[in-house]
């Protein structure tokens, strides 16, 4: 009866230079500050949907359109709001625009968030 050699993939991993580099980087803590570290992978337990990619693409496209519209609104209205004589009306409109910004920022990554406007 042949001797049990263990897991052959573990033996390969021990000699694989890429695997070794990854393990060394992990031991140095180089992966500890990555976005999502310590959190479960999103939708890991979800049922497989063959149209997942197209649905995500559509969601990203809708978000891109919404962000573009918010940026256009800011670009178009902010200069006018700054010279508006009716300060209360300008503040109300700025609050509406900041609401649009907050809605877009909820779905954007931190690095792409839009700064709320101030008058």
3D architecture notes:
The chain is mainly α and 119 residues long. It has a domain at 53-112. 61% of the residues lie in helices and 0% in strands. It has four helices and no strands. It has helices spanning 8-15, 17-28, 52-83, 87-107. Helix 3 (52-83) packs antiparallel against helix 4. The termini are far apart. The mean pLDDT is 88.
Order of helices and strands: HHHH
Mean pLDDT: 88
Low-confidence stretches: none
Count all strands and give the number. 0
Q: Give the helix proportion (percent range).
A: 55-70%
Cα shape: elongated
The DSSP helix count reads 4
Biggest sheet layout:
none
Measured between the Cα atoms of the first and last residue, the distance is: 83 Å
| Structural class based on helices, strands and sheet pairing | mainly alpha
Strand content: under 5%
Radius of gyration (Å): 25 Å
List keywords for this structure.
119 residues, mainly alpha, elongated
Draw up the topology in text:
Blueprint: H1 8-15, H2 17-28, H3 52-83, H4 87-107
What is the compact description of this entry?
61% of the residues lie in helices and 0% in strands. By secondary structure, it is mostly helical.
């Amino acid at each position: 009866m042949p001797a049990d050699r263990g897991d052959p993939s573990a033996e390969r991993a021990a000699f694989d230079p890429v695997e070794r580099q990854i393990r060394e980087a992990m031991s140095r803590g180089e992966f500890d500050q990555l976005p999502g570290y310590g959190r479960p992978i999103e939708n890991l337990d979800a049922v497989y949907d063959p149209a997942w990619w197209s649905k995500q693409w559509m969601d990203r496209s809708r978000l891109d359109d919404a962000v573009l519209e918010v940026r256009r609104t800011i670009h178009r209205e902010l200069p006018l709001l700054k010279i508006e004589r009716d300060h209360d009306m300008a503040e109300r409109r700025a609050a509406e625009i900041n609401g649009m910004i907050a809605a877009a920022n909820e779905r954007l990554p931190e690095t792409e968030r839009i700064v709320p406007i101030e008058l």
